[in-house]
Design a protein that fits this description.
Mean pLDDT: 82
Keywords: Calcium, Disulfide bond, Heme, Iron, Metal-binding, Oxidoreductase, Peroxidase
CATH topology: Peroxidase, domain 1
CATH class: Mainly Alpha
Low-confidence stretches: 1-12, 22-30
Pfam families: peroxidase
Catalytic activity: 2 a phenolic donor + H2O2 = 2 a phenolic radical donor + 2 H2O
Order of helices and strands: HHHHHHHH
Number of strands: 0
GO biological process, one term: response to oxidative stress
Radius of gyration: 16 Å
Strand content: under 5%
Protein name: peroxidase
Number of helices: 8
CATH architecture: Orthogonal Bundle
Structural class: mainly alpha
Number of domains: 1
Distance between the termini: 11 Å
Largest sheet: none
C-alpha cells in the first residue's frame, strides 16, 4: 500500500520547503560566499547539464522528483548543505545513509552521481556535489509543475559524515509534537515552518511503515 498525493496544496508546501532549506545553508558558515552566478565564469554550462540529467531521471520515474527534494532536506538538516549524505562507509566514516530516518527510504543518489559525472566531463573539479543536490531539488520541483527558486551556489563538499548527528537531528515517525517543534526550533525554524516542511512529504510515495 502506498500513498501518492500531488495537488496545489502539496506544491505550496514545497515552495515553502525551498525557502526553509535555504535557511539551513546558514549553518554551513559560508553564506556570504554564495552566489547564484558562482559558476558563471568557471563552468557556465553546469546548470544546464544538471537540469538535463534531472529531467531525464524524472521522465523515467516521475516520483524521483520527490526523492530528490527529500534528499536535499536530509543533506541540509545534518551539518548544513554539504553533500555529507552522499558519503559511503569507509574505515573512517559511518555513512549517514544508514541513519534510521534514511536507511531503505532515501533515494536519488544515482541521479546526483550521474549529474556529477556529466559536469566533470566539462568542468573537472569545479562544481560541488552539495550544489548539485541543491540545484537538482529545485529542477525536480519545476519539472513536475512545482515552483522554482534561485539557488545560491558555492558550497563545498564535506569530507566527513556523522551518522550519530543524523539519527538525532532528522525527524522520525516516533517523535512527539513537542519533540518535533524542539528539533526544528534548534535549526531556527518555527512550528509553522516545520509544518510546511512536513507537508512536502505529501508529494511522492510513502511506505506503510511511515504511517
Amino acid at each position: 500500500m502506498v500513498a501518492v498525493v500531488s495537488n496545489s496544496l502539496s506544491w505550496l508546501s514545497i515552495g515553502q520547503v525551498a525557502a526553509m532549506v535555504t535557511l539551513l545553508v546558514l549553518s554551513s558558515g559560508c553564506w556570504a560566499q554564495l552566489s547564484s552566478t558562482f559558476y558563471e565564469n568557471t563552468c557556465s554550462h553546469a546548470l544546464r547539464i544538471i537540469r538535463t540529467m534531472v529531467r531525464a531521471s524524472i521522465a523515467r520515474e516521475r516520483r524521483m522528483a520527490a526523492s530528490l527534494i527529500r534528499l536535499h532536506f536530509h543533506d541540509c538538516f545534518v551539518q548544513g548543505c554539504d553533500a555529507s549524505i552522499l558519503l559511503d562507509d569507509s574505515a573512517s566514516i559511518k555513512s549517514e545513509k544508514f541513519a534510521k530516518q534514511s536507511n531503505n527510504s532515501l533515494r536519488g543518489y544515482e541521479v546526483i552521481d550521474k549529474a556529477k559525472s556529466a559536469v566533470e566531463k566539462t568542468c573537472p573539479g569545479v562544481v560541488s556535489c552539495a550544489d548539485i543536490i541543491a540545484v537538482a531539488a529545485r529542477d525536480a520541483s519545476k519539472y513536475v509543475g512545482g515552483p522554482s527558486w534561485t539557488v545560491k551556489l558555492g558550497r563545498r563538499d564535506s569530507t566527513t559524515a556523522n551518522i550519530t548527528l543524523a539519527a538525532s537531528n532528522l525527524p522520525g515517525v516516533a517523535n512527539s509534537l513537542e519533540e518535533l517543534i524542539s528539533l526544528f526550533g534548534s535549526k531556527g525554524l518555527s512550528a509553522r515552518e516545520m509544518v510546511a516542511l512536513a507537508g512536502a512529504h505529501t508529494l511522492g510515495q510513502s511506505r506503510c511503515i511511515s504511517g
